[in-house]
Amino acid sequence: MRIEPEPAGIFADWMAEVQARTERALERILPCAQVAPQRLHAAMRYAVLGAGKRVRPLLVHAAGALTGAAAASLDRAACAVELIHAYSLVHDDLPCMDDDTLRRGRPTCHVEFDQATALLAGDALQSAAFQTLCEGPEHIEPALRLDLVRLLAQAAGSRGMAGGQAIDLASVGSALSVEELEFMHIHKTGALIRASVKMGARLGAGLEAGAGAALDRYARCAGLLFQVVDDLLDCESNTATLGKTAGKDRENDKPTYVTVLGTARARELSRELLDEALEAADELGPGGERLIDLARFIVERKY
């Protein structure tokens, strides 16, 4: 039997609370802009604070709720994945990558500051993510901290997000198969989303093997779902709504789910992935409500 999602107001309140506590934690973790080197620290804070949906921190907290993890522990993991995500956006926007000038409704980091500062800000945010996991609540055992570092490093590295971005850049102007496109996005977008879910769950009580497999299936579907919806929004929405340049993928001749499948089939695929994610979350029992709500949020979002 499928678990019914919580009333919209309850989920919205929970989401706002997690977003707010993540923002406060990031403000504490990031160096003050008044501390030398001031320009670098200002760029780091500019890239991270005051914007963003915080989907990855929400997934950390939702998976942590499933296993009864402590909120303070989840804050650290949530900030770590968000710092990695922010660094990836700063680097993706650089002229040597996607060469974009707008992110989250404001100038990209290299436009607001300069290319060299943006590059260094991304580097420093990546380092800060791992420092964040190594510090914090003392009750987290060293072996668990090491496991969290390993999960995040794998998700961000050459066999995860960075590798997916490399494939993306190499695919410009190419005609990819659906299988090749999925492989790229399992790494580029999906790896960090899966890591968010795994890290949140690891900070609580253990899951039985069947539940662990269902959770991983959910995370895999959620990662691909996020990308399919992104591709649809890129071609159907506008710059003001998205907060970034609409139609950029088409302009750069990048293969997307829309260019490979067509709009109608891409939308159908998003519904299929949502159904699969919901089926996986159902197997987790009553603790999976937040994950169900988040899957629906990912597919229904407007930016």
Structural class designation: mainly alpha
Compute the average pLDDT: 94
Tell me the strand percentage band.
under 5%
Report the C-alpha radius of gyration, rounded: 18 Å
Strand elements, count: 2
**CATH class group:** Mainly Alpha
Unreliable residue stretches = none
| N-to-C CA distance | 31 Å
Please state the second-level CATH architecture: Orthogonal Bundle
Number of structural domains:
1
Count of discrete alpha- or pi-helical segments spanning 4 or more residues: 16
How would you summarize what this structure contains?
Helices cover 71% and strands 1% of the residues. The protein has a single domain, classed as Farnesyl Diphosphate Synthase.
Report on the structure:
The protein has 303 residues and is an all-alpha fold. It has a single domain, classed as Farnesyl Diphosphate Synthase, CATH 1.10.600. Helices cover 71% and strands 1% of the residues. The chain is built from 16 helices and 2 strands.
Topology:
Layout: H1 8-29, H2 38-48, H3 55-67, H4 71-92, E1 102-103, E2 106-107, H5 109-112, H6 115-134, H7 142-156, H8 161-170, H9 178-188, H10 190-202, H11 209-236, H12 239-242, H13 248-251, H14 257-261, H15 263-282, H16 289-300
Helix pairs in contact: 1-4, 2-6, 3-4, 3-10, 3-16, 4-6, 4-10, 7-10, 8-9, 10-11, 11-15, 11-16, 15-16
What attributes characterize this protein structure?
about 300 residues; mainly alpha; Farnesyl Diphosphate Synthase; two-stranded antiparallel ribbon; about 0% strand; globular
